[in-house]
Amino acid sequence: MTVVPSAGTGSMIIPEHVAIIMDGNGRWAAKRSLQRLRGHEQGAEAVREALKGCEELGIRYLTLFAFSSENWSRPVEEINHLMGLFRYFFNKEIKALCDANIRVKFIGNINKLPDDIQKLIEEIKDRTKDNSKLILTIALSYGSQSEIAGAMRALGEKIKAGELAPEEIDESMITQHLDTVDHPDPDLLIRTSGEKRLSNFLLWQCAYTEFVFLDVLWPDFRKQDLAEAVEEFGSRNRRYGAL
């Protein structure tokens, strides 16, 4: 976390890592008598707003929950549209991301995605790997319980091979086997749309994360909403279990 000057308040505490559950695309569309797919399209603009807000505030890590492992159970038409939206966004935004010095990473079961999207992901990772102003992590086909189970399997294989004793396993070792091994844990998690649950997102990593739940639907999210969530974060006393 960092502390920066803030007009009217003297200073603002800035979280190092913000995670966002981007919720409410379908309800945004329904309120306007539009197809759910239009909500997803409008949600892409909110991603740009979040990136602008992070740049202005000096946030170093942003993790976005874009597509969960549970989302595969949605109607085929909606899944296909989302895959098309990912293709469009990745192709259209890669130059802007490079110009903004943003590094892009991905977590989740990427192997389940269509082959061309997997290739796009590798291209984006390669073209942005030397960027350093902001680390944008996109969770695609991601589920935290599956991620933790994968870490347990990896540790079990090491025990089976005689490389590790069960009593050597601690919290730090588990963290080292998660998808987010090279990320700090989120300081702040934001969920839009008024829902108040984690939905299988970063369960291990959010052990001491501050949560801010916003009533705004994701397509209506703007950088001011991010700033207000950060201000709310800065007003809290994080004790980590201590007095």
Automatic annotation (TrEMBL):
Co-factor: note: Binds 2 magnesium ions per subunit.
Annotated Mg(2+) binding sites: D23, E210
Alphabetical UniProt keywords: Magnesium, Metal-binding, Transferase
Active-site residues from the entry: D23, N71 (proton acceptor)
EC number: 2.5.1.-
Protein's GO biological process: polyprenol biosynthetic process
Cofactor(s) needed by this chain: Mg(2+)
UniProt: substrate binding residues: 24-28, 36, 40, 68-70, 72, 74, 191, 197-199
GO function terms (MF aspect): ditrans,polycis-polyprenyl diphosphate synthase [(2E,6E)-farnesyl diphosphate specific] activity; magnesium ion binding
InterPro entries: UPP_synth-like, UPP_synth-like_CS, UPP_synth-like_sf
Self-association state and partner proteins as the record states: Homodimer.
Family annotation (NCBIfam families): PRK14830.1 (NF011405), uppS (TIGR00055)
Assigned protein family: Belongs to the UPP synthase family.
Function of the molecule: Catalyzes the condensation of isopentenyl diphosphate (IPP) with allylic pyrophosphates generating different type of terpenoids.
Protein name: Isoprenyl transferase
